[in-house]
Structure formats: structure tokens, C-alpha cells
Amino acid sequence: MVKFRYTKMAYADPDDMVFGHAIYPVFCKNWNIQFGAGYVVPEVKVAPRPGTGDSLEKLKAEHEKITRDACDRAAAIGIPFFMIEQEHVFQQTYNPKWAGEITALQAAIIEEYVSKYGMKAALRQTVGDIRVAEKPGGLRESLGSEYDRRIAETVEECCRNGASDICMETMGGKEVLDYGCMRQDIRAILFGIGYLGSIDMEYVWDRNVKICSKYSTNPGGETNCSGANTLMFVAGGLTSHDFPHTVAMMGRAMAAARTLVAYECGAVGPHKDCAYEGPIVKAVSGRPGAQEGKQAVCAHGDIMGNTIAAVCDVWSNESVEYHSEFGGTTPAVWLQATAMEAALMNTAIQTGQAKILRDLYTLTDRYRDPQGYCLSYDNAWRIGKALVEYGKDIYLRARAAALEAGKIMKEAHEKREVVLTRFELDSLERAMAELEAMTTETSRWVEKCIADYKRKVPNFKPENYGL
Amino acid sequence: MVKFRYTKMAYADPDDMVFGHAIYPVFCKNWNIQFGAGYVVPEVKVAPRPGTGDSLEKLKAEHEKITRDACDRAAAIGIPFFMIEQEHVFQQTYNPKWAGEITALQAAIIEEYVSKYGMKAALRQTVGDIRVAEKPGGLRESLGSEYDRRIAETVEECCRNGASDICMETMGGKEVLDYGCMRQDIRAILFGIGYLGSIDMEYVWDRNVKICSKYSTNPGGETNCSGANTLMFVAGGLTSHDFPHTVAMMGRAMAAARTLVAYECGAVGPHKDCAYEGPIVKAVSGRPGAQEGKQAVCAHGDIMGNTIAAVCDVWSNESVEYHSEFGGTTPAVWLQATAMEAALMNTAIQTGQAKILRDLYTLTDRYRDPQGYCLSYDNAWRIGKALVEYGKDIYLRARAAALEAGKIMKEAHEKREVVLTRFELDSLERAMAELEAMTTETSRWVEKCIADYKRKVPNFKPENYGL
Amino acid sequence: MVLPKIKNTDFIFRRYNVELEGPAIPVEETPEVKGALPKEEPYKSLALAVVKGDTDIVLSKVKDALKTIKPLDIIEKGLAKGMDAVGALYASGTYFLPNVMVAADAMMAGIAECEKALGKATEKKGKVVCHVAEGDPHDIGKNLVVMFLRAAGYDVIDLGRDVPIETVVDAVKKEKPMWLTGTALMTTTMSAFPKISEKLKSMGIDIPFGCGGGALSKEWVESFDLGFFGAKAHHAPKLADAILKGMGWKDLRVKYNEVVGEYSTGKGW
Amino acid sequence: MVLPKIKNTDFIFRRYNVELEGPAIPVEETPEVKGALPKEEPYKSLALAVVKGDTDIVLSKVKDALKTIKPLDIIEKGLAKGMDAVGALYASGTYFLPNVMVAADAMMAGIAECEKALGKATEKKGKVVCHVAEGDPHDIGKNLVVMFLRAAGYDVIDLGRDVPIETVVDAVKKEKPMWLTGTALMTTTMSAFPKISEKLKSMGIDIPFGCGGGALSKEWVESFDLGFFGAKAHHAPKLADAILKGMGWKDLRVKYNEVVGEYSTGKGW
Ligand code: B12
Ligand code: B12
Q1: Which terminal residue of chain C, N or C, has fewer Cβ atoms less than 10 Å from its own Cβ?
Q2: Distance (Å) of CA B305 to CA A287, A324, B23
Q3: How confident is the model over C106-122, as pLDDT tens digits?
């Protein structure tokens, strides 16, 4: 159950938002680190190599390297604090015992360095959402989902074995979102992300928060990877022809409404780095967030890699495969990359220039693409504001966020601040019109969606959402 | 022959130095790009994979990928201008025909993109210095060096086939420097970098400038990779125990005296990215320079990756091997990385905040390590100033630069701005004392060095330097 | 914002898409459509309805046409031509993915209508089995491959995502497809592919195994037999056509760019 | 500077080296030296002179000692013990590379003096051939390997840099070393190593081939027979000792960390 709904903005003025500072900083049980407490923490995330998932031994050896190489580099260049995030591969979440042993190993290595050098550190475990809608039991343990049962066990194992915080990237609504993504069907996108996604979030995070509290592990938060990131990814670069960036941005705005649910269930932040909806989420919640951008080029292309740094509290490389570069192995290289950027932000904070640097980041990609424009903290705040007006209704708030994003993009186009292509503009106008035409009676809208998408999307099973 | 010697500072005030601006901007013959003309140009450099040097066909295929992937990404994220640098592998310089064909291929691909998108671009060819002191003919064509003859031919082939500019990392003095590096012998370092290095630079660059002028190709410039970078590299990170960072910095100061020789022969800049002596060189010469740092983590560790950006005109990733990442192939990934940073700098320029960002960069690593402290533009300027006082004498000016760097580091330690370790401080004081004790009669000093190092360094052959 | 407006964004970025994508012209007037569309009616209108992705119009036109024309002609001379035009529009950058998707949906609806009239399924060009590796939930790439293949007239057995090795091998044994595709986006799931290749080989099955997805590289896919790397989903029909003409996995490794008619690393975005 | 001073640098970086490296104490008083140094004179002073890297003192003390003591005793009980202490000081982070280098120079000078008295070269522990790959000028890593091995009492044939494959193979054939090392820092020169391995194998020579240098990775080196990856130059003596004790390249691939007593990727800096 959610404990409350956001109906007010945490930040009264967007100008109060700045990197390294959150209204509700977060303290970690181990290694003395804080988030949003006046400094930006660099994060590194490295994926194990092909084949290493074959056995626990191999996977442990790989995680030992990842952790050690990162800690070593932290000492070598004088990084004062950092977070190592481990995103589980399938095998890790599927085998709770593996997840536990690997967490314990990573925690022990960090402990070794902390006691030698006295750095501040954190170990984030991002448990994989291995549930598959079309498999027996679907998304719910109560329906007999073996996958879901294992997820809960894995969360517990990670907490027990020394994780500083737990994150997830849940998949709720993904089947409908995917359908909408491929056909640019804005209603499917809204139903998938805003409605089904939010329902599933509540299910998962209510449980996560309960498990975490047993071990004083922080329930971190979410990202709408399965929805908004999929849209952003398929939308691609300026020269891609797969999905309009304007509509991807509307999906992103809806994602904020969904990502907030983790906090409404009691998660404390920082949410996950790939949540580009972060600035909206922070504006509404005042909680610290992780972001990725300019230094996540290893993981994916990005056309707002500076802008998105403006109000971050953790700065991440997203994810890179373990391998060697001339400059070291990837955990070393990419921790250094994010740490150097975090150091720049922390210098700005210490010299009283944080807002200047924030605005430089913001302006750099603000006009490059409609997504960067909307995720600039001032516009993000506006989207948040529209969202909380309908904060109690998961459908209406997601819709309001999307509409506000659409409005912002149209204004930008009219002011010639971000000139849109025909495709971007047409798609935007069509999506706006469809959204506006939707009924504001939630139950009627939901009924219609269920009926339609049950027919159109074979994997969509309302019972997965208690519907 | 050098055309002149630097005896005055181009910048009267260090505060006039800022990224993207040089007193003498450089124009390129092709693709409409300028350096130091009010914007920072991102650079990408990618090394071919193992095995691709086996044949011209393989090497061409590899360079086609490198060039195309970079150009593609430039279009995809809207990069307005960029430079592709190709550092030759042995096979490329050794076979002038290969170098020519590859240059032509790369130029054709860039042309294709420029004509489609209208971006500004440059193609830098960095010819390998394949000369080996101990092989027949040593460093000089006149002594029968086959390697040297081929270098000259390769320079010409690159010019003829469309290179925008030519750079090199010459090896003069390396044999003596290496000896000095391993034994922390400051005199050997000074003799290797400051004296022998400068003599060899004159030999190579006089020729390069002549060849380039036939084709209106820009003679770019140098880096003291073989000297100062070796020292910096062996010095490593804070936890390395191989060479004192303070003495490495003194070598770096000497390197400025040497790198300037290219300009004294008629090169126009930008010098090469790995010349961390760049801020000193720019202060003295007013010419644009390339630098690498925060976004060159792929290539090497770096403890001044922000500071070094402060006055750059080209921003580079140094070098990465061609391979795939989740986010694309390395040419795409790393061009994006440097371009995103360059965009931040260019935003600062366009919003009138360049000096603020410059100082944020500077302060970030200024106190992290004595090297970053000295290469902060204000201190770099001081080193340049000391250097030009003795501008006409290659020994004395390198010595003066090193002494000034030493002085700056001692001051920093005394002011507790950069607290040194015992090892760093001891080494610094010893080196200072030795430098101060040296005769200021150049010819006497040189004679003694020749005699000593002929004995101690088997590969050192004075005739390689016309001595 | 504490900072002022930007004087000149040309030094920061350029929106090449805006610079390149000229004014909107109706699709009917693009050279791609003009070139591919049939001249006579009702084929022309049928094809155009597919191009526009309008399922309702397609259905009504098909029903109308079925009164006088043979179902197979409707498909081949009408609907399929429309889809050809869509392919060309996508390739030239005029059409975007969702346009293709809705056009494909419209065409499929039309074909289904024709098949109803025929009383049986139409003959497909060939059979392809597609799947996403075990443990891997990333299926958008695979879905695109399926869509492009179906739109091009192939019979696709879609095994879905998180598919165990055995299931894949059994499907190949049972369905005897001309081509098997695999998609994997994670370093830890992709290792299923060489195992599948081993099993198939040990059963004497020599089938091209096109593998794609974020985590894979050409080099890696070519490290096991049968495998060839698939860069972009929209390459699938051209690859299938080539396989139909007899190209094997060894040829496809070398002639990939030629076959699909473009250079793509298949990495990033 | 347009910006003010930094309030607190602890949030930007920390100089862990300064925090860790306590106050200067004379090397004589470090546990490493106390543990390794001989108790009796003149061995103690001899060893200490090596520790301090003072060639002049070493030479005069050796000359002195030679009047009463056997050259081999001077080396084994004096000079070599000093070098052991140096190794320990380097490992613990008290000594830095140049300290090791000058100590090695001093010891070598002492040994040469003893050998003069002996009338012949002393027996070395074993023979190692070292080289840098063809086309590669980067030889600092190789020079360090050579230095560490010589300091540890090995006979090193240093072939230099930019060494053709044939030269390496011939040297191995002729010198019959217990170990061959190769260093390569460039992606385009490292491909010489598998070729060398092939040639050696075809001649029936099964010798551990330790390969290191910036461009290489453990995985790559293990992709050809004989090869094992060398991470750090100062590992060389321990590796040589292990080879002397009969370890082969296959063991070294697995037991590397155990043998050298530390974890190192050998990448970066
Ligand atoms: C969207 C996304 C998701 C969505 C997927 C939604 C969906 N329906 O597929 C969701 C949220 C579910 C998700 C979940 C996870 N993800 Co994810 N995800 C992504 C992301 C951002 C984009 C992937 C995508 O859809 N791309 C677009 C499609 C179209 O591309 P594609 O499938 O590659 O297909 C293209 C080509 O490859 C080609 N193609 C593909 N197959 C074939 C076949 C043939 C024959 C041909 C010709 C062509 C072809 O065609 C397409 C182009 O035209 C990537 C980032 C990235 N850099 O890849 C991460 C990424 C793949 N995910 C990653 C991770 C770690 C995860 C999680 C494990 C995270 C976690 N711990 O929770 C979970 C999975 C949990 C689990 N079950 O194990 C990592 C994988 C790292 C690794 N180890 O390898 C990535 C790389 C992100 C990163 N950098 O960290 N993810
Ligand atoms: C210094 C340097 C130079 C100096 C070398 C001076 C010298 N005496 O060696 C000079 C200037 C000559 C030079 C030249 C060039 N360089 Co250079 N250079 C470097 C640099 C910065 C540092 C290398 C170094 O000395 N490292 C320190 C030593 C100690 O490390 P090491 O040799 O790896 O050894 C360590 C371990 O590997 C180990 N080890 C090594 N061997 C063995 C063996 C055993 C058995 C064991 C146990 C251990 C072991 O021990 C050491 C640690 O304890 C690197 C950067 C990098 N990231 O590596 C580039 C680098 C190697 N150079 C590079 C390039 C491209 C060049 C040039 C080709 C550039 C050009 N076009 O001019 C030229 C060469 C021209 C030619 N002839 O072809 C690239 C190579 C890229 C590629 N294709 O692979 C690099 C990686 C830089 C980069 N990122 O671009 N370079």
C-alpha cells in the first residue's frame, strides 16, 4: 500500500533545486555516506562478462574484480566517496543464494578499502525484475509466480549481506507499453506506464520497503526503464527514424508519476540513475536522485547528457561491460570518469558557484532536443506541478504530466527555442489531441483500456495487476 | 632551423587565457574549421585492433569503421564540429603508401558527411616516430636511417591525401630520459628532454613545416610524450610508488621548453592532446592547443583531468581501442564524450561564463596533486614567464622552467595548499638543489653531460643529435 | 535560471534532423511511393491504404475487391505493393517505425480477410523461427524483426522471450525453418547462442543463425558456427531473401553490407 | 582567478597518500630492513649500503671485505640480503622505484667487484630472455622487468625493443632460457606474441612465455599456448622463482595471484 500520495511540490521554487542537495538527504547504514547532503556522489556500474553467469564461482570472481578495481582507482586518484552499484543479471536474482554471497563479497572488499583509506562508500544492489507476464503466475507471487517469489528472497538476501540500498527497475505495464511504443499509441503508453506501471510499483515497493526495514537497508527507488527508457532508446538520436522524441518525452513525463510510487510506499532515494524523469521526481519529492548522462556514453547514446546533471545527487556511468582499456579496467576507468565530473560539481558547491554550473549544464542540451528541454529543471518542475494537481489519481496525474510536457514542447517550438521536425510536431499534436479527448473519469477510462488491450496485446493479463 | 626563439609571453596576463580562444587562431584548408577561434573543438582518436596491422586491406577496413562511426554519431547528436585524429601505428608510418591510402579514405568519408550535414571537421594525422636510437642510422636520415627517411615520406603522403594537419610525438633524448626516469636523475632528465629533445625537435619540425607548406596542410605541433608523459605515467596515481610526482612535474616544465620548438620552426598548432605542458606552451606562444583529461580515462589515469581543460582549444579522448560498448563502438562513444564536454565549454563561452567554468575546472584538481597545481593556468603562466627569460638558450630555459615549477610546489607545500608526502618533498628538494648547483655555462654543462651519459647510457649516440 | 540566454547555439549543437527534413509533402507525392505503387485500380487504392496504415479502409477495400478479384491477386498486386512502398519510405527516412508498424498491421488485417475468402492461409515465402535468449526480457528488437519479416511475407514462429535452449532447438527440429534468429541484450544471456549452435550442429542441422541485440558484436557472433551478426531489424527481410536464394551463414558473414545495402555497426541506440 | 578559495576540499578529493604515509623514519628502523638485514658485520654494513643505494660505499666496503672474506659470501650474505630488504621496502610502499633502481645499481657494482676477485662470473639462478615486440618502442616496462630480475640474481639476455620474431626465436633456441618475456604496448604489435608461441611450439620448445604491457589483457595472452599474463614488473622475480621450482605456463595462468602475493589487473598507470 502507498503510505500517501504526492499532492504538493517539495520545492516551492525550481531555482532552489541544485545538484548535491536534496530536501530530504539520505543516510546509509554502512560506510558513513550520505546522499543529497551537500555533495554529489559518483557511482560506477559494471556488468559481468559473457559466460560468467555460468556458475556462482565465475560470477563471484567477476564481481570481486569489479569491486576491487573500482576501489583501487578510488584510492589512486583520491576519490573521497563513491557508490558501487551492481545490477543483477538474471542468474543472480534467480538464485537468491548467489545474490547473497556476491553481496557479502562485495561488501567485504569495500570494507577492506574503507578501513585502509577511510573513504565513504555505498553498495547498491539492483535486483533484476525477472518476472515475465506470459509465464505461469505472471507478475504476482499470489498467482503462483516462481520468479516473483525469488525476487523477494533475493531482496532479502542482499539486505542481509550488506547492501547499502536496494533498487529495482520493475516491468509492470511493459507488455502494453511495448505495444504502444511500436504503434505510437499514446493511450497504450499512458495505460502501460501511468496506470499498470503504478499499480505494479505499489505491489513491489510495498514489499521491498518491508524487507529493507528489517535490516536497516535503504529502499532506494526506481526508474521507468521498461517504459520511458524504452521509448527514449527507440527514439534514439536526431537522425533516428524510429520514434518521435516529442512522444517519447510525453512517456517520460508519465514515468515520473510512476517512479514516485516507490517513494509513496516508503522508499527514500536515491532513485536509479537511468530515471531521466529524475528532475521531475526530485521537484515533487525533494528526495535525492541518481542520474546518468555525459559519462554514461559507454551505456547508451544520450542527447541531454549535461542537462540531466543539473539537479543530480549521484552521478553514474549507467553500465559498461567488464573489460580492459588502455587506461585500466572498466570499473576503474568509469568510476574515474564519474568521479571527475562529481568533483567538478562539488567544487562548484564549495566555491558558491553551484547554480552557475547547474545552468551551464542545463543550457548545453536544453535546445538540442525536446526531451532535454522538458527535463531542464525549470520545465521539469512545471511538469511536476501539473502532476501533483491530480496527485491522488494515478491515471489523471500521469495524463496531466504528459499534457504539460506537450504544452512545454509546443511553446518551445512556437518560441523557436527548439524547432521541431514535421514528424516530431505532427506526432506531438496528434498525441496531445488524443490525450485531451480522453475521459477524465478514471474508472471508465480504465475499463475501456482493459477491454481494448486485452484484445490487442496477447500478453496483457489484467489479473497480473489485480484488475 | 628555428625561425625565432620565444623571449616574450604572448599573454601579458594569465587571466586572459581561457578555453576556446587563442591569440593566433588556426584555419584549416578543408572543412571550414578553426581552432582557438572562440569555440572548443572535440577530438576523437581510436586505435586499430590487434591483428589489423597485418595488411593494408585490414588496416583500411578498420580506419573506415573508425571514421564512419565517429561521423555517424556526430550527426546523431548534433555535434557542430569535430576533429578525428589518427595516430599511426608502426605499419602505417613504415609504409608511406599505406599512410597515404588510409588518409585518402578517411578524408573521403569525412567529405561525405560534411556534404550531407554541413558540419565543420578536421582530420589530423599523427605520424609515428619509428626511429630507434640503437638501430643503424639512429635518428637521422643523413646517418642512413631508413626509418627516418620513411617518416618524411609518410608526412608527405598524408599531406598530399587530405590531412588537415600533421602532428608528431618525437623521441629525441628518450634514451637519456629513460635512464634518468628510472634513477630519478634530474640532470639526465634535463639533458634528455630539454637539450637533446629540443635539438631533435628542430631537426624534425624544420622538415615537417617544409613538407606541409607544399600542400597547405597545417603543421600542428608536438607533445613531449616520450619524456614528460613517460614521467607522469610512471609517477602514476596517488598510491603509486614508482616516481615522485614533484619531479615528474619538473620534467613537465622542461617539456614546455621543448614542445615550443615546433612553433619556433613554423608549426602553427594546435599541438597534440597529450601535451600536458599545453597551458605553459599556450601562455608563451598564444597558439591553440589540444588537451585531454577527464574524457581520456579510456587511455590513462589522470589526476588533473578537469584542471587541464581550463585553457584548451581542442578536447580529446587521447586514445581508445576500436571495440563495441553497449552505447556504440568506441569512435562513437568517445567522440560523444568529448563533444559533450566541449559543448559545455562552448555554452559557457556563449553565455559569458567562460572564466567561471575555467576556474571551476582549475580548482577541481588544483590541490589534488602537485602536477595539477603547477599546470593550473596561472602557475603555468609563471613557469612560462621563467622560461622566456632564458628563451634563447635551450638548456637554460628548460632549467629555469623546472626551477620555477619546483618553487611553485614548495610554496604550495608551505602554504599547505598541496601537502606533499615525504617522498615527494625529499625528491623535490634534492632535485632543486641539483638544478641550482648546475653551471649556467651551457657549453660546459653539455660537454659534461655528453661525457657522462655516453658512458652510462649505451644507446645514447651524440651523432644522432649532430653533437 | 541565473544565466542569460545563449547568443548563438550553432557553436553548441546543430539539429541536423531539422536542417535535413525538408517541408512536409503528402506521401503520395514522394518518389518512393510513386515508384512502387501499382497504376491500376483497385490495387492502387489498396496499396495506398496500406501505405497510410489505415486498417479500416484496407478492410473495406479488400471486402469490396474480393467480390471481383482473386484473393491472391489482392494480396500480391495490391497489399504487398503498398508494403514495398512503406519499406522504401522507411529506408529513405521519410517514414518512421510506427508508420511501418501500423502499415504492417493494416496489411495483415487485409491478408487475413483474403485468407478467410480463400479458406486457408496463403503461402508464405519461407519460415523463420525467432526468439530472445533465456533469462533475457529485452524483446523489442526481436519484435521488430518479427514484424518486418511478417510484413515481407514470411511465416514467423515467434517463440517469445526468455526461451530455454531446448525449446529453440526443438522448434527448429519440428518447424524446419529456413532461418533462425536470436536476440540477446545482456552479456550473461548471449552465451545461449553458441550452445544452441552446438546442439544444432550435433544434430546435423546447418541453418543460418542470425543473432542480434545490444550486447552482441559481429566478432563474438562469428566465434561460433552457424552464427552471423544481425545489425538492424529492418535488415531482416533482405537477409531472408538472400537466404531464400541460397546464401549460407558463411556468405552472410562476408556479404552482409552488400545484402542489406548499407553500413551499420548495429551498436548504440 | 575569478573564483574564491575553496572552503573544504574534503568533498572534492583526498590525498590518501599523504594521509597514509606517516612521518619519515630512517630506513634502518623500518621493520622490513630490521627483518632482512644480517646481524654480523661486515655483512650488515654491506647490506645497508645497498639499501641506501650508495655505490661508492658499497664498492669501498666490498674491496675492504674481499681482503678477508670469500667473494661469494660477500654477495650472498651481504649484498643480496640488502636487496631482499629493498624488495620488502618496495612491496610495503616505503621504497619507490628509483630507490630500487639505484640499490640495484649499487649491488651490481658490488657483484662486479666480487666477480673480478673471483676471476669469473658468479653463477646466476637461471637465464631469462626479455624483449619488446617488433615495431614497438615502448620499453620502460621491459627495462623494469630486466632490472628486477637482475637484482634478484637472474641472468637476463635483454634483446631490446622493436625485436623481430626471428630474433626472439633464435635467442630462445640458442640461449635455452628457463623463461621468455615479451612486452608490447600497442594493439598492432602484440600480435607478434602468438606468432612467437607458434614457432616455439613447432620446434618442440615448451617454455613459459610471460607477456605484459599496456595493450595486453590476461584473456588475450591466454588465447595462445605458452603465454601467461604478467601484470607488474616487480612480480618478475617471484615468477622466475616459481618457474625455477617447476611451475609451467598452465599453472601460472591459474596461480598467478598466489605466486606474486597480490591482486593486480596490470592495467592502467
Ligand atoms: C529498454 C531496456 C530495458 C527494458 C526492456 C523492455 C523490452 N520490452 O525489451 C527493461 C526495463 C525490461 C530492461 C530490464 C533490464 N535491463 Co535493460 N535495457 C534497456 C535498454 C535501455 C534498451 C534496449 C532496447 O530496447 N533497445 C532497442 C531495441 C530495438 O534494440 P535491440 O533489441 O538491440 O534490437 C536492435 C538490433 O540489435 C537489431 N536486432 C536485434 N536482434 C536482431 C536479430 C536479427 C536477425 C537482426 C537482423 C537484427 C536484430 O534490431 C534492432 C534495431 O533495428 C538497454 C540499453 C542498451 N544500451 O542496450 C538496457 C540494457 C540492455 N539492460 C540492461 C540491464 C542490466 C537490465 C536489467 C538486468 C537491469 C536490472 N537489474 O533490473 C533488467 C533485466 C532484468 C532481468 N529480467 O534479468 C543492460 C544489460 C547489461 C548487460 N549485462 O549486458 C543494458 C545494456 C543497459 C545498461 N547499459 O546497463 N531493460
Ligand atoms: C610513454 C609512452 C610512450 C613513449 C615510450 C617511451 C619508452 N621509453 O617506452 C613514446 C613517446 C616513445 C611513445 C610513443 C608512441 N606511442 Co606511446 N605511450 C606511452 C604511455 C603514455 C606510457 C607507456 C609506459 O611507459 N608505461 C609505463 C610502463 C612501466 O608500463 P608497461 O610497459 O606497460 O609495463 C608495466 C606492466 O605492463 C608490466 N609489464 C610489462 N611487460 C611485462 C612482462 C612481464 C613478464 C611482467 C611480469 C610484467 C610486465 O610491468 C610494468 C608495471 O610494473 C602509453 C599510455 C598507456 N596507457 O599505456 C602510450 C601508448 C602505449 N602509446 C601509444 C601510441 C599510439 C604511441 C605512438 C604510436 C604514437 C605515435 N603515433 O607517435 C608512438 C610510437 C611510435 C612508433 N614507434 O610506432 C598508444 C598505443 C595505442 C595502441 N595502438 O595500442 C598508448 C596506449 C597511448 C594511447 N592511449 O594512445 N609512447
Answers
A1: N
A2: 30, 20, 24
A3: 999 999 999 999 888 88
